[in-house]
Amino acid sequence: MPQCDQQTRRGSSPCKRFGFTLIELLVVVSLIAMLIAILLPAIGSARDSSRVLQCTSNTRQIAVAWTMYLQEHDETFPEHQKNMQWFYGGREPALGIPAFQADHRPLNPYVGLAETDSAGLDSFRCTADRDIRNGNTGGTGPTQGHSTYTYFGNSYMMNASLLWQKDESGDIQRVRLSDVRLPPSQVAAAGDVQWYYAVLNTHWDAHFHNGHDQVNLSFLDGHASYVQIERGSAHTPDYSFLREHPETQ
Questions:
Q1: What are the pLDDT digits (tens) for 160-201?
Q2: Distances (CA, A) of 220 to 66, 80, 149
Q3: C-alpha–C-alpha distance, residues 3 and 19, integer Å
Q4: pLDDT band at 19 (very low <50, low <70, confident <90, very high)
Q5: Dihedral pair phi/psi, residue 157, rounded to 5°
Q6: Rounded-to-integer distance, Cα 99 and Cα 40, Å
Q7: Which helix (H) or strand (E) holds 218?
Q8: Cystine design at 208: which of 6, 67, 92, 128 (Cβ 3.0–4.6 Å)?
Q9: Is 168 buried (19+), middle (13-18) or exposed (0-12) by CB count in 10 A?
Q10: Cα(first)–Cα(last) distance of the chain, in Å?
Q11: Contact criterion met (CB below 8 Å) for 121 and 91
């Protein structure tokens, strides 16, 4: 709107109009673009951190659920069945595990759910979950085109050493908590599936939160933690997927 002094309003000269020049507009646009470039990585980092925290919360629920399960089952882990490392808990049925294989998910009641019909279940679903890929075949993997959760009903693969052991005659037996000779705070129960491929040091890729083998793990003492997996190492001071120290095996 024109701004005029008293003399101008009496008609001695036209009012001057004020506005932005083209250079000023370009400067403003450049500043806005610079702010966006600065803020976008920060927003992305905050979003990734939020997903990690949500995943940590999920794995802690799983850790606590295991302590409750063991208390009610004579400190004995579930009986070994095919794919039990996936269907110990989660959504049922799952795309890659038909109902005739996974007739129940024993940990579900301990996160407040029925053993079956757990569609929409979030306790076993990582918000950064995606499909498992084979790095040697251009990405082809068992969950191609599906998230790990959609395919298995569960984002968090269990430590299979807690599901079976062989007796002296070679028969498969259930594992009791007393069979675990390491501190419960060190033994991982389950976690982001990338732990498995990192421990085996394979080319399979199931990185949910990063590309350098950091995963959320639940532990037998009921806690959960965001842990750096050492490639090829099943046992470190920070975690173990074994029941006893490797030097005693």
A1: 999 999 888 888 899 999 999 999 999 999 999 999 999 999
A2: 7, 18, 23
A3: 12
A4: low
A5: -75, 140
A6: 44
A7: strand 214-219
A8: 128
A9: exposed
A10: 86
A11: yes
- Cα separation, 125 vs 156, whole angstroms: 8
Residue identified by tokens 């020049």 is: 21
Q: What is the pLDDT of residue 166?
A: 86
Residue 77, SS3 per DSSP = coil
Reported confidence tier of residue 67, pLDDT bands at 50, 70, 90: very high
**Does pLDDT of 48 surpass 90?**
no
- Taking 50 as the threshold, does the pLDDT of residue 1 lie above it? no
Nearest-angstrom CA–CA distance, 50 and 240: 26
Where on the phi/psi map is residue 138: left (φ > 0), alpha (ψ -120 to 50), or beta? left
> Sign of the C-alpha dihedral, residues 173, 175, 178, 180?
positive
Residue with structure tokens 């004995």? 76
DSSP conformation class of 111 = G
Q: How far is CA 178 from the centre of its chain?
A: 29
DSSP secondary structure, 142-186, as one string: TTTTS-HHHHHS-SEEE-GGGT-EE-TTS-EEPPBGGG--S-TTT
Q: What angle do CA 187, 191, 234 make, to 5 degrees?
A: 50
Name the least confident of 11-15, 28-32, 61-65, 151-155. 11-15
95 residue type, one letter: L
